[in-house]
Write a structure and sequence with these properties.
The structure is a single chain. By secondary structure, the protein is of the alpha/beta class. It has two domains: 194 residues, 3-Layer(aba) Sandwich (Rossmann fold); 190 residues, NAD(P)-binding Rossmann-like Domain (Rossmann fold). 44% of the residues lie in helices and 14% in strands. The strands form three sheets. It has a six-stranded parallel beta sheet with strand order 3-2-1-4-5-6, sandwiched between helices. Helix 9 packs across helix 11. The longest helix has 32 residues. The chain starts with a strand and ends in a 9-residue tail after the last strand. It binds nicotinamide-adenine-dinucleotide.
Length: 440
């Protein structure tokens, strides 16, 4: 099929590359000229494992092209994906300005053939209808709007797109459903189904999925708080409940809270939506409060350890991305911790394998934050190490080099990547989440 993807960020670029890999002919459109030039030259502007090969292979075989020109991008399309940002507004609602402004441009440029316009962005209930109205203002040809929320995980995005656990589509016509079935034929199977529903259900499903995961994270963070108070071990507790097949093992890891470009904004958007409908979504509001509390917890613990004063101290921070295997720092807990340390008078030397450049740009005028190109170098004479992202290279780090590099062997682990017993043996004082501290 001839497909256009508008917005080539984390979702749009993966969508475009994977659809091309499956045999579709894809034009990707973005209004960021530098990004389009890079992509035309086979340069992936984000860190996403596996994406570079798909990009270069499909540019070479002619199935994948990039442009900044929306009109040229859509003039032959049978399907147009909107993978545009929907950031939170001040009141928590999703900002639909990019989606709706592109939708109204689309009306003028639609091809002569029937075309399906697909909301891939995470959008509130009712957006499919708004997009339809915006396109219809100028459209002279036949089109339908489909809601097709994306469930991929950054860091595993290629794998998730190529082998999705399910594909959700919200449709208003059989004709649009047929196009979507053809588009996704290579990706779905009996055990990886394409689920067809109305647009409101599809739109709400994405918010429900992320909100459920957030609730699970906050629940475990509260259980971790209880573990600390009663002297229980959250690692063993996690297994004790995780082996119950009704509960499962995933998303039972306590830490310094969730962040990223999706969870925080999607939770706020669902709360906003439910408030708007006159429904008080208490559970989700509590999950969000718990997350805030959890993000502040580690800094309070650090300040308490130094008897209430960290002025002039220096902390090594390992991990800046909001999770491993991505360079995405949007709403990353590490940044909240860094800001709090600076506000309390401390300095930071930070390291991340992939997100360093993004953070360097962010703190370029903040002299109390420096970014190290090497993890052990970041430790150099710091007062303690704080682990904020569970990159595999931190999990496998040499504990002796950590102990030797710091002014004193002291680690605050916001992701529970080390075992307290191991740290004790290595002679390192160690604070983690939901487990007894090691105080030497
Ligand atoms: N990142 C994720 O893991 C993820 C997962 C599922 C769903 N989503 C949702 O997908 C949507 C996109 O998220 P993302 O992370 O890919 O965002 P992103 O910021 O990485 O990408 C958006 C892209 O759109 C481009 N753009 C902005 N305005 C434009 C315009 N008017 N015309 C053309 N291009 C324009 C930007 O230059 C950018 O390249 C959001 O609604 C998000 O909630 C994201």
């Amino acid at each position: 099929m001839r497909v256009t993807v508008i917005g080539t960020g984390y979702v749009g670029l993966v969508t475009g590359c994977c659809l091309a890999e499956a045999g579709h002919t894809v034009v990707c459109v973005d209004n960021n000229e530098q990004k389009v030039t890079d992509l035309q030259n086979g340069i992936v502007p984000i860190y996403e494992p596996g994406l570079a090969d798909y990009l270069t292979n499909n540019i070479s075989n002619g199935r994948l092209t990039f442009t900044t020109d929306t009109a040229a991008g859509v003039h032959q399309a049978e399907a147009v994906f909107l993978a545009l940002p929907t950031p939170p507004q001040e009141d928590g609602s999703a900002d639909l300005s990019a989606v709706l402004s592109v939708a109204s441009q689309l009306g003028e440029h639609l091809p002569d053939n029937y075309c399906v316009i697909i909301d891939k962005s995470t959008v509130p209930v009712g957006t499919a209808e708004k997009v339809r109205a915006a396109v219809a203002e100028h459209a002279t040809t036949d089109f339908d709007v489909v809601s097709n929320p994306e469930f991929l995980r950054e860091g595993l995005a290629v794998q998730d797109f190529m082998r999705p656990e399910r594909v959700v589509i919200g449709v208003t016509s059989k004709r649009a459903e047929a196009v979507m079935r053809e588009l996704y034929a290579a990706f779905v199977s009996d055990d990886r189904p394409l689920l067809v529903m109305d647009t409101a259900t599809a739109e709400l499903a994405k918010y429900a999925a992320n909100s459920f995961l957030v609730t699970k994270i906050s629940f475990m963070n509260e259980i971790a708080q209880m573990c600390e108070r009663v002297g229980a071990d959250v690692d063993m507790l996690r297994q004790a409940i995780g082996y119950d097949s009704r509960i499962g093992h995933k998303f039972l890891y306590p830490g310094i809270g969730y962040g990223g470009s999706c969870f925080p904004k999607d939770v706020r958007a669902l709360i906003h939506m439910s408030d708007h409908e006159g429904y008080d979504f208490k559970l989700l509001k509590a999950a969000m409060d718990v997350n805030r509390q959890q993000q502040n917890m580690m800094v309070s613990r650090i300040i308490d350890h130094f008897s209430g004063d960290i002025v002039g101290k220096t902390f090594a921070v390992w991990g800046l991305a909001f999770k491993p295997n991505t360079d995405d720092i949007r709403e990353a807990p590490a940044l909240i911790i860094i800001d709090a340390l600076i506000a309390a008078g401390a300095g930071v030397v930070a390291y991340d394998p992939e997100a360093a450049d993004n953070v360097r740009r962010l703190y370029k005028s903040q002299e109390k934050v420096s970014i190290s190109g090497e993890k052990y170098a970041a430790l150099n004479n710091a007062d303690a190490l704080i682990v904020t992202t569970e990159w595999a290279e931190f999990t496998k780090a040499d504990l002796h080099l950590i102990a030797e590099g710091l002014q004193q062997p002291l680690v605050f682990d916001g992701r529970n990547i080390y075992r307290p017993e191991t740290m004790q043996k290595a002679g390192i004082s160690y604070y983690s989440v939901g487990r007894r501290p090691v105080l030497l």
